[in-house]
Amino acid sequence: MTHLKAKIYRSGETVPKWHHETDEVSIDKTRGEEQLEITFKLASKGGGVTDVAVRIDPHVGFDTLLNEMWKVDPERVVALMARQLNGHFWPG
């Protein structure tokens, strides 16, 4: 798994504020399936730990991800895609 520089926040229906939960986020291809998987752990209300996995199917989810990334920083998306297409793989 590759570490993803991301922050996880938690809120609830009755809590109007988001609270930082963790920076420990991983991203990888799922085993045996052609999906992208983002995983992290959350502290459980009862004192344990809950593992969370977000699985994204490339046939139905990648277009949405790319579109949202484009809205945030189109120049960065173009630069990364050009880098990948030229054989200079994603920065680690």
How would you sum up this structure in a few lines?
This protein is an alpha+beta fold. The chain contains two helices and four strands, in the order ββββαα. Strands 1-2-3-4 form a four-stranded antiparallel sheet, with no helix packed on it.
Overview of the molecule:
This protein is of the alpha+beta class and 92 residues long. The protein folds into 2 domains: 1-56, no CATH class; 58-87. 25% of the residues lie in helices and 46% in strands. It has 2 helices and 4 strands. Strands 1-2-3-4 form a 4-stranded antiparallel β-sheet, with no helix packed on it. α1 crosses α2 (74-85). It is globular, with a radius of gyration of 16 Å. It starts with a strand and ends in a 7-residue tail after the last helix.
Uncertain runs? none
Strand line-up of the largest beta sheet: 1-2-3-4
SSE order: EEEEHH
Mean pLDDT, to the nearest integer, reads 91
Summary tags:
single chain; 92 residues; alpha+beta; 2 domains; four-stranded antiparallel beta sheet; 2 helices; 4 strands; 25% helix; 46% strand; globular
Could you outline the blueprint of secondary structure elements for this entry?
Elements: E1 2-12, E2 15-29, E3 36-43, E4 49-56, H1 62-72, H2 74-85
Antiparallel strand pairs: 1-2, 2-3, 3-4
Helix pairs in contact: 1-2
